[in-house]
Amino acid sequence: MDLGGLNQSFLKMDEKKTLRHEILELVRRYHAAGAPADFRPGEDFVRYSGRHYDEHELMALVDASLDFWLTAGRYAEEFETGLGDYLGLDNVLLVNSGSSANLVAFSTLTSPRLKDRQVKPGDEVITVAAGFPTTVNPIVQNRAVPVFVDVELGTYVPTLDGIEAALSPRTKAVMIAHTMGVPYPVREVRAFCDRHRLWLIEDNCDALGSRYDGRLTATYGDLATFSFYPAHHLTMGEGGAVATASEELAGIARSFRDWGRDCYCAGGENNTCGKRFTQQFGRLPLGYDHKYVYSHIGYNLKVTDMQAAVGVAQLRKLDDFVAARKRNHAVLAAGLDRHERHLLLHRATPNSDPSWFGFVITVRPEAPFTRAELVQALDAARIETRNLFCGNLLRHPAYAEIEHRVAGPLTNSDLITTRTFFIGVYPGLTEPMLQHVLATVDRFMAGKAG
What we know:
Helix content: 25-40%
Strand content: 5-15%
Shape: flat
Structural class: alpha/beta
CATH class of the largest domain: Alpha Beta
CATH topology of the largest domain: Aspartate Aminotransferase, domain 2
CATH superfamily of the largest domain: Type I PLP-dependent aspartate aminotransferase-like (Major domain)
Radius of gyration: 24 Å
């Protein structure tokens, strides 16, 4: 045995460990050197949302980069386990965006493995018109038929009655988002789906930490999705996840995420099943290498470990982030209440406890001003706003020719298109920023509302 060479290896390992510690300490100091200046109303932006982080995210990102493991690795596994523990679900699969999460989740339902419950071209899926495009796009891309229902003003989610009225003999699934963090009546919708043997996908991209009837959203559906874009509750920069309690659905989702392959070995692993060269698949030769057998027409939608490292640091702060969003939403609600005559303010559904994504405002039709006038006043004060996503999705050019069905009038979705917007509640907002928002609205109302 070459003890000298072994000792040299240990010395190099110790040196690398010491250097890593020194690098991370420098990163911590680098972050501390950039402390933000005091907020200057009218000069500094009040963002509608954004990344909120400290030295821990930077240190995790650099730590992962030093490993130079450029695909999903130890941090991805840690995040998946951590989010699963938070949700109480056994299966969380990281992907590269919330949109990809929706694509993977819906594509999962098209698997032939689901037999008579497989979603096939022409099957109908109940969704809403006033939402984000990539909740609906996977339905269209898989040649199913979206059935659009309207939403309520104030909550911006559909009612159980509206969903039930959309049912037809062709209905196979419901795929709806908890818009802006407000849960729709998901317990009742779950029961509706069970009665009619429908799949339920909860688009939870806006709603991490929201609860309905005391239970976390994303835990009612057969599948749930998340986004970790900087605007969302946690960020990896880009990133998303699919979660499910079902081992069968998790296996199918993993296949769609990982090129459509049948093998479920993690990166760098081989022969986890112990049958790599002994099985028969389709018309392939007996014993064809299982790592290169494809059972679905899939994608490559994995996340990198550097992104996941940021997510791990963020996940440890989730409870604080949710509390901050609730606190900021409450401040805005209390301050804007005096203008309720002209502004319809954001509210929760019964039995829900939202983890708010933003504060939604609808300018009432009888108000003596338009959305554009109010938004322009906020913009002039450097307060960011955003429309409520698409308004009525069917008004957009991309959806003019899609096969679809509309269940009832989309009156509120059309009104949202012309009169609704939202402002921020994310944890990066401070009390002076929130007071600047309220003072700006007060001044506008004094000049416009009379």
